[in-house]
Write the C-alpha cells for this entry.
Amino acid sequence: MSIYGAETIGTAILILLGDGVVAATLLARSKAENGGWIVITFGWAMGVAMAVYAIGAFSGGHLNPAVTLGFAVIGVTDWSDVPAYLAGEFSGAFIGAVLVWAAYLNHWRPTEDPGLKLAVFCTAPAIRHTVNNLITEIIGTFLLVFVVLAFGSAAGIGDSGLTPLLVGLLVLGIGLSLGGPTGYAINPARDLAPRIAHAILPIPGKGPSDWEYSWIPVVGPIVGGILGALAWKLFFPG
C-alpha cells in the first residue's frame, strides 16, 4: 500500500471514530447524548490507536501533518515523502467527516444549536484568546510528538506491538489534561478538513464554520510538532 493510500485510510478511520464520538455525545436523540468529556476523549484515543494499528505497517501511521512535518525536520521522514503524507492525511480527514455526517443523518435536524453541529467537525476554544489558544495547541502537540518519538527510542516498546495503543493512551492523557481550553486539535488535518466538510455539506440549520479561528488549530500544532521533534533530537541525540 502506498503512503498516500495508507494515510488516507488511516486518517479516515481516525476521524470517523473521533468525530463520530463527538456526534454521539452532542447530537439530539443519539443514544449516547450527553455522554460527556470522558467519553469523547476515550473515543478519540481509541480512534488514534485503531487507525495506527490498521495502517502503521505501511506508512508508520502519522495521521497528522504536525507529526509528518516534525519527523521530516529531524530526518526521520524523507522530505520527498511529505507531499504524499499530507495529501493522504487531509483527504482521509475529509472522507471521515463525510462518513460521520452520513452516519448521523437523522440527527442534524433535531439538534437545534448550530454550535453543537460545528463541534462535531472541528474545535473551538472555551475562552477565545488568540495567543493563549495558540500556546495551548503548541504545548499539546509538542507533547504528542516528543513522547511518540520517545516511544520509538525506548528499548522493547517497538517489538511489543503496543506502540499504537500507547499512542492512543497518550492522546487520551492530552485530551483529559490539556483539552479543556481549545478542544485539543493537535492535528491540522483533523480540524481543517472536517471544517471544510461542515462548510459544504447540506447540514440543516448549520451556522458559519468559524474561519476566523480556523488558522489556530493549523499553525499551533505545526509549530508544536516541529518544536517537539527538535526537543527529542536534543535530548535523544543517538
Remarks:
- DSSP finds ten helices and no strands in the chain.
- Residues 35 and 75 are 42 Å apart (CA to CA).
